[in-house]
Fold this sequence. Notes:
This protein is α/β, with parallel strands linked by helices.
Amino acid sequence: MxxxxxxxxxxxxxxxxPVAAITKENVRKTIQxxxxxxxxxxxxxxxxxxxxxxxxxxxxxxxxxxxxxxxIPGMTFKHKTAVIFDPERYPTExxxxxxxxxxxxxxxxxxxxxxxxxxxxxxxx
Length: 125
């Protein structure tokens, strides 16, 4: 997996851009590394750009992974997470379903977007 994680001081957002198949292992590894950078900068805003990722797991596996975000060490209810995706690589209906499941569980604030500016506005708003 190729992974770039940066802290944007202008917006106080940790930005993670993985290039890999979306699997439980890759999702957890990406979140863990982003949380380390966030902790280093006392940051609670996480932005994941998965537009270059390929779907690599079943819907059930994806739901299981995303339903247990609070099991990832360092994740708290104070974190706010935005994900931007490409509907050509990841079905919109699936993204919306996972967003609903995550938000109906005891998890941090989580939203999925198609537009980067909207995601940043939501995180910083």
